[in-house]
Specification:
about 180 residues; alpha+beta; 6-stranded antiparallel β-sheet; 5-stranded antiparallel β-sheet
């Protein structure tokens, strides 16, 4: 039997710290992520295997306690486990076809927290992030500057920004500048 090796990746923003007195930026700890595509007939079985209900309404999220599912399209979700549980290992046969791809190493998350969090994001994101327009639990695939992100409002003053790791330094730089601008 051949010896097997697992690639270890460095976090692109290891040790990065930024923000201002109104908005703090923190690189989220590594997480397990699944890019999930499924038809309606597979959803009940997937819900049971993942131990959360996949949201079926646009811009919605579900979960909590470190495991979330983000609606990205009519048949597409991003499932995140902040404690690095083996989400793909939980999956088995379902009532309908589905595909699940582990994208844990593709993404990185940056948490934006504080009273200036929405202003920080709005420095480079076109969405209306006022609480009445983008309430807690809402999620959207959008842009920050020129980078595609998935934006999740975790709490009133806390956002999770998911981006591809290759864009992480760019996204972090935009957020850092936005946080400094929000302080004025």
């Amino acid at each position: 039997m051949a010896e097997q090796f697992t690639a270890e990746r460095d976090l692109p923003l290891a040790g990065a710290y930024g923000g201002s007195g109104l908005a703090r930026l923190v690189v989220a700890r590594p997480a397990t992520r699944l890019s999930l595509r499924a038809g309606a007939d597979a959803i009940p079985g997937l819900n049971g295997m993942l131990e959360l209900d996949l949201p079926v309404k646009p811009l919605a999220s579900s979960g909590g306690e470190g495991r979330y599912a983000f609606w990205l399209g009519p048949d597409e979700w991003l499932v995140i486990d902040e404690y690095e549980d083996d989400l793909a290992g939980r999956l088995g046969p379902a009532a309908g076809p589905y595909s699940a791809v582990d994208v844990s190493h593709r993404n990185i998350a940056i948490m934006v927290d504080g009273p200036g969090a929405a202003a920080t994001l709005n420095a480079a994101c076109p969405l209306d992030l006022r609480l009445e327009s983008f309430p807690v639990g809402k999620v959207a695939r959008t842009v920050l500057g020129k980078a595609e992100i998935v934006l999740f409002r975790k709490e009133e003053q806390t956002f999770r920004v998911e981006c591809w790791r290759s864009f992480a330094p760019y996204v972090f730089g935009l957020l850092d500048q936005g946080a400094k601008d929000a302080a004025y």
